[in-house]
Structure prediction request, 441 residues.
Amino acid sequence: MTLLVISPDYASHLLPLATLATAWRDAGEHVVVATGSATAPIVADFGLERVDLPLGRGANAGVMRTREQQTAEAASLERFFDATRRGMIPTLMYQARERLTDLMWRPEERARATLEVVDQVRPDAILVDHLAFSARLALHTAGIDYADVVLGHPSALPVAGEVYGCPPAWPRAFDPDPTELAHLRRLCVEVSDRFAHQWNTAARTLDPRADEIADAFALHGDVVLYNYPALLADDGRMLPPHVFLGSTRRDERDDPEVDEFLRDVAPFVYVSFGSFLSVRGDVLARVATAIARTGLRAAIAIGATPASALGPVPGGWLVREYLPQVRLLDRAAAAVTHGGNNSVTESVGPGVPVLVLPFSTDQFAGAAAVERSGTGLALAPNTATQHELSEAIAALADPTWPGREALRTEAAAQHERPGPTLAFAALAASRAGAVENRISR
Prediction:
C-alpha cells in the first residue's frame, strides 16, 4: 500500500501530518510526502520519501522570519503582525482579506501539479491538510477520495450557521464590540462567497463539467480527521462524520542542553507562541517576567525574538530559538501558548494545563474551548498585566488545579490509542467501505 501525504510547506502543518504517517511507515507501508523544499529536512527526519509540491507563496521550516520570504509574503506577514498589536478584530479582518491571495495560490497550476504527483505516486490512500486548498481542489474536481486533516479548533472547517474566519466562541477575556463583530461577519461572508467563486472558476478550468459548490471553506474530504482532543470539542456543534485524533505526539531527537535542564526536578512552565507569533517579543517578555514572579522555572521557545528582549533571565531557565516541545511538555507543570494547534494538542496530550493568549484565526475559539473544558485559562495577550499573568500561571502550575483530573483521563486515552493509530484505522475502514460499495454495485 502507498500513502500520499499532502502538506503546505510549513513545519507547523507538516509535523502533525508526518506524525500521522508514521503509522503507515511503521506498518511497512510506502509513504510519500508532497510538500515544498523548506520542510524537506523534516520529511527526511521522519524517514519518509518526498516529492516537490509547493502550495503557497510562503514557507517555514520551524521559525518564521520575514526576510526569508518572498517579497509579497514578507509584506503580508509584517501587516499581519502589526494587526495583532492593534487587537482581535483588526487581525481577523486583515486575515479575511488576505485569504483571497494566500489560501489558493496559483490554483489551476498547483491543482495540475497535484494531479501529476498523484499520477506519479499512484497512492492507495491520501492524507491532505485541510488548508491545502489548491490540492483539495484538484482531488475534489477529479473525484479522487482523500482524508481531510483539520488542524486546530474544529471551526477551521465551518458547519451550518458558521462562516469561515468568524469565531463561533470567544474566551471571557475578550468582549468584541457587536458592531465591529457584525462588520467582521459581513466581511467574512463576502470573502467566503468570493473564495467559492475562485474555487468554481478554477474547477471549471480543470474540468468544464465540474459541479459548482456554495462554500469552498466548508467542503471536506471523504474522511474528516480532527487533529484535536474530543475533550475540547464538546460544544454542541453539528460536525460531519469524523474522528478526533487527540494529538499527534512525535518522537524528538536527544538534546544534551534539554536533558540537563530536565535533570532539575523543580517545576517549570513551557512557553511557545509558535513559528509565526513568536515575533511578539513584547508579550513574551511580559510572560517571562510574570513567570519569574511566581518563582517557577521556564523553558521558552523565543523563535524570531532575540533573547535580549526578555530582559534578565533567571538562572536555571532554558531560553532558545527552538525547543523540542513534546519532550518538554511531558514534564511541564503548565504551558503558555498563543493557542496554535500543536502547542494546545501537545499540552493536553500529556495532561498539562494551558494558559492561552490568542492572537488570530481559530485561536479564539480554541481558547474558549480550553476555558469551557476547565483544562486551562485564557487572557488577552495585548492587555493582560504581569499580575494577571502571574496569577493565572501559578494557579495552573498548582498540582491541585481542578482541571487536572479531566486532563489525566484524556492523556490516558491518548496513550492507549494514539492519533496515528486512529488515523490508520479510520482510513482502513473507509477503504474497506469503498470496496464493499463497489462490490455491491
Notes: The chain has 16 helices and 13 strands. Confidence is low (pLDDT under 50) at residues 435-441. Residues 2-246+417-440 form a domain with the Rossmann fold fold (CATH 3.40.50.2000).
